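Exercise 4. Each item below gives a protein and its sequence. For each, produce the structure-token representation.

Item: Alpha/beta hydrolase (Paenibacillus chibensis).
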Amino acid sequence: MIDVAARNNVKVVGEGERTVVFAHGFGCDQSMWKYITPSFEQHFRIVLFDYVGSGNSDLAAYTSEKYGTFRGYVQDVLDIIDMLKLERVTFIGHSVSSMIGMLASIERPDAFDQLIMIGPSPRYLNDGDQYFGGFERSDIDELLDMMEMNFAGWASFLAPLAMNAPESPGLTKELERSFISGDPVIAREFAEVTFMSDHRQELPKATVPTLILQCSDDSIVPIQVGEYLHKHLKNSTLRLMEAKGHYPHISHPEETIRDIYEFLGVSLG
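Answer:
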């Protein structure tokens, strides 16, 4: 019998009839939600977790076979939902978790009430004239090579680019520490799964009402990606944030909270 709670370091906090599941992005763990979760605890039951290979998850549960595609991560989300007997959840996913949540909702639409995607991308690679994802294959190959050869150097290179908050160097250092705290082999495999993924074909299958939070200057996900998602995701709302960077829930928590509350129809008062 798999202990899902231990495997994914599942935490449940807050009170409320509605349940919000927070799913972190690549190179992070559930602690990255700490700037916004206090504002949700009084209205919602909050579920936090770490993907296998991240944070305080059970590293022994990681296998390249299971987690070599998004399928393994999708299954873990569904396992958590089943373990807690959750229904009609609001799933808030950052970056790669946006697509993981969407795929889970396609498989089990009854379990999801809304999806909120922060900095989502169905494909990070450019596809000729057909699609602009922001990266060429050579860019990703260089990134993966750097992770393999100099993991600490990769973290210190990517963190300031991704956070894009030069006025808050402490936040950049926090992200860098998060990047480097992970297992280098698992982190590289997760990066490859993430950056080589292509989930454009699944977009028409998604039916759950979705909020797309797109940052105005995101080095990982350009504005064209948010517009593409909005065009191909029926029942979606696109919100272009004033926030810059790829981590608005860290660098601009107030704006992030406000946008999510507005979508959920909850008063900030």
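Check: The chain has a mean pLDDT of 95.
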